[in-house]
Specification:
binds cobalamin; alpha/beta; six-stranded parallel β-sheet; 15 strands
Length: 547
């Protein structure tokens, strides 16, 4: 039994119902890795992933304080800055000698503002956190000075902030232990439903998109823009997860699964071949770039179990795509989607920025037509405006162009104005219309797409593909037709919004139009559920009840 007081690692709750409707539950792997590293060094850890466990703030605070932690580490995104501050304040009030730190991509770039805004914070861990968190915990537990701990910003004197040199990246990711699975265990025990199991196979991204902070995050401490675990190390973890949880579906949280150049490509080929040879029976989903896909790679990945790929398409016009510094073309993006579809791999809800501060109403219309052409005008995609994340290059560009709000601060994801205020008015109206109808439709859309894909693959594997049980294909097509109606309803709302904006923006007319849309979407969602239930029943019948 360790003589150390524990370290509590907290992911604050995000109590937004719409967010919960759309985003699947998945544990915070960043904290889980830190927990595993500290435990390996004999430091006890309590993981409080309130977001994944859907705990409220009071329960998150109760669990954190209950273990009398020597140190509390809190992660956050722009959406959870306030609950993070409140939790820090409550910990400090209850236990003034407990060291309170925050970390993650957001805090890494907003550290100075955050230390200024929240007196309860003692430090900020910047960059990749495992080694810094370990050294910080050791220093706190032994009462040693923080000086010399790389990757840290900490209070120095009355109002000073000391900044240590950046933390170099972990050279060999295989040296890290597998992430702690406390949250997953509790999700399975408490929720009965089998949650998404997330894994991390690579870190970093070679891209330099202007709206993203990942590349500057992983370049802070120098080192390669993209690193991968060895195939053997990945398989060892999959087998462990398989033995423990009977794993069938994997969500990889990698920013960019297929790394740069030949290095990235041969690594993926090696992994895919190993997954095929080992035949673990898993399906998985990845995030990747459009320009890293090709026939040979996708054929192999399909065989290895790749079910879905998230590609950041971002825009349907080249001008907007160039403002994001994506380095791909609209044609390349469309080709990538067609390629995925040809290989029977789902191209999931895309990274898409419908509304840009530099965009025109014509850009909005063209983005909408682009999503319709790709059969992907989900409400999430048609409603996304640029979000500002600290560390993203676009922030300074907006400042230079006089579009950043004078009172901009790190948690203001929409802290800018639009060159064409009519685009801004439409963007806000569409975003505020993202309620339960739209998020339920999107959630159903995703569920239908991935479940159909996995069933079709299973039928194929059992040699039942093409055997048209009670009109299976008919039910599948009927469901797909409902999804297209969703896309059409969403797209028409935006295009009507564009016409309203061109005619002189009138919020009341748009609200009436939006109410119509919500009614339409709710009705289509009900019909989609019925159609899909008929499909599911016939699949189950075909599988002889063995679904
Ligand atoms: C998987 C994922 C999710 C999952 C799971 C949650 C999670 N974060 O793991 C889900 C789907 C739930 C999710 C949801 C959202 N996400 Co998300 N998510 C990611 C993603 C793609 C990977 C996270 C991951 O596994 N990284 C790998 C691990 C090892 O790294 P890490 O989490 O950064 O943690 C390391 C360091 O950052 C640091 N660290 C992190 N936290 C802490 C805390 C302490 C105390 C310490 C010491 C160190 C430390 O040490 C860790 C180990 O090295 C990241 C992108 C990214 N590259 O991280 C976006 C990201 C975190 N998400 C983001 C966003 C915007 C969201 C959403 C708001 C999206 C939405 N719906 O609108 C929601 C809201 C979540 C919330 N409640 O706040 C943004 C946050 C940007 C910002 N500045 O706020 C990111 C950075 C993507 C991006 N670049 O835009 N997300």
């Amino acid at each position: 039994m360790s003589r150390h007081r524990p370290v509590a690692l907290v992911n604050p709750p995000d109590l937004d119902a719409v967010y919960h409707n759309v985003v699947a539950v998945s544990e915070h792997l960043g904290l889980s890795y830190i927990a595993a590293v500290l435990r390996r060094e004999g430091i006890p850890v309590v993981l409080v992933d309130a977001d994944a466990l859907r705990l409220d703030e009071a329960e998150a605070i109760r669990r954190t304080l209950a273990c009398e932690p020597a140190m509390v580490g809190i992660t956050l995104t722009f959406r959870t800055v306030d609950p993070a501050y409140r939790i820090a304040g409550r910990v400090k009030a209850a236990s003034p000698d407990t060291h309170v730190t925050v970390g993650g991509q957001h805090a890494t770039f907003a550290f100075r503002e955050m230390l200024g805004e929240c007196p309860a914070l003692d430090s900020v861990v910047r960059g990749e956190g495992e080694m810094t968190a370990l050294e910080l915990a050791r220093a706190v537990l032994t009462g040693s000075p923080l000086e010399g701990i790389k990757g840290l910003a900490y209070r120095d004197g009355a109002d000073g902030v000391a900044l240590s040199p950046p933390r170099p990246l972990v050279k060999d990711l295989d040296r890290l232990p597998f992430p702690a699975r406390d949250t997953l265990d509790e999700l399975i025990a408490s929720q009965g439903a089998f949650p998404l199991v997330s894994v991390l196979w690579t870190r970093g991204c070679p891209g330099a998109c202007t709206f993203c902070n990942t590349h500057s995050f992983y370049r802070l401490g120098g080192g390669p823009a993209w690193r991968a675990r060895s195939v053997g190390n990945i398989l060892a973890e999959l087998e462990q997860l398989g033995a423990r949880y009977g794993l069938r579906y994997i969500y990889t949280t990698d920013d960019n699964f297929i790394g740069p150049g030949e290095l990235g490509r041969s690594w993926v080929i090696g992994l895919a071949q190993a997954l095929i040879d080992r035949d673990l029976g898993i399906s998985f989903e990845v995030d990747t770039r459009a320009d890293s896909l090709d026939e040979e790679l996708l054929a192999l990945l399909r065989q290895a179990g790749l079910a879905s790929a998230f590609i950041g398409l971002e825009a349907g016009t080249q001008r907007l795509l160039d403002t994001w510094g994506k380095g791909t073309s609209v044609e390349e993006n469309q080709t990538a989607v067609a390629l995925l579809r040809r290989h029977g791999i789902l191209y999931s809800m895309a990274g898409f920025i419908m509304f840009s501060p530099y965009g025109t109403l014509e850009d909005v219309a063209e983005n909408t037509r682009f999503l319709l052409r790709l059969d992907n005008a989900t409400y999430w995609n048609i409603s996304q405006s640029l979000r500002l994340f600290p560390g993203a290059r676009i922030i300074e560009q907006l400042r230079r162009d006089g579009l950043l709000l004078p009172n901009y601060s790190h948690s203001m994801a929409y802290g800018y104005r639009f060159r064409d205020p009519r685009v801004g008015a439409l963007a806000q109206a569409i975003r505020l219309n993202y309620g339960l109808e739209a998020s339920s439709a999107d959630a159903l859309h995703d569920y239908v797409q991935i479940t159909t894909l996995l069933f079709e693959r299973r039928l194929a594997k059992m040699g039942l593909a093409g055997i048209d049980g009670p009109d299976l294909a008919g039910f599948r097509q009927a469901t797909a037709a409902c999804l297209r109606e969703m896309y059409q309803a969403n797209a028409s709302l935006v295009l009507d919004g564009v016409a309203l904006a061109e005619a002189g923006w009138n919020p009341a007319s748009f609200n009436a139009r939006a109410a119509l849309h919500r009614g339409q979407l709710a009705e289509i969602t009900d019909r989609t559920k019925e159609a899909f239930q008929r499909y599911l029943d016939s699949v189950v019948a075909l599988l002889g009840g063995a679904a």
